Hints:
CATH class of the largest domain: Alpha Beta
Number of domains: 2
Number of strands: 9
Radius of gyration: 16 Å
Number of helices: 6
CATH topology of the largest domain: Rossmann fold
Distance between the termini: 22 Å
Strand order of the largest sheet: 3-2-1-4-5-6-7
Bound molecules: 5-O-phosphono-beta-D-ribofuranosylamine
CATH superfamily of the largest domain: Formyl transferase, N-terminal domain
CATH architecture of the largest domain: 3-Layer(aba) Sandwich
Amino acid sequence: MRFAVLVSGTGSNLAALLAAEAAGALAPGEIVVVVSNRPGVAALDKAAAAGKPAIVVDHKAYPGDRPGFERALLAALAEHRVDAVVLAGFMRVLTATFIDAFPARIINTHPALLPAFPGVDAAAQAIAYGVKLAGVTVHFVDAGVDTGPIIAQRAVPVHPDDDAATLQRRIQAEEHRLLPAVARALAQGRLVCEGRRVTIADATEPDADQLV
Ligand code: GRF
């Protein structure tokens, strides 16, 4: 399965995906292109260092024209014969123009136990609310903000002395394991989506403990 990874910033999740691929832990998935909606971000350097095509489709070039931006994204992905899309810190909401091109083939990682704390600054939201458990959710993408069917979640404790930054770091360590594992399961055709409920077929393989 030929993955595009969409990014907007640092790219630590991209780095985790690239490391998994290098270790043979993404197969039969492969990352064939990395696309950023923002020029000059560190994620693009990480992609280039790994020898991946690193492309910018700048949303600012499409003011007031979200469908135009998404059509440009789709064209870039088509050039690389992409089968599936991993959103790894991609900070634009996608609409049906894009989503309908990859049915049940777009996944996202979110640094909270959805449906709690969708949107931006999830770790800060968790600290402000006072929850004792935060976490990470990997989910299919629909047209809402962090509302798609949940594939896998991991809980992370909130420590009394945490601030948003320390909690975010603990969450990210977990998502760097979970996102590649889910991407691999998608590539293996093991994700079964029935309405909102997602199951992982044949969860008896060595990596199963990552996902159940
Ligand atoms: C991650 O925490 C991810 O969950 C959220 O944005 C952050 C991106 O971080 N959607 P990075 O660019 O992968 O380092």
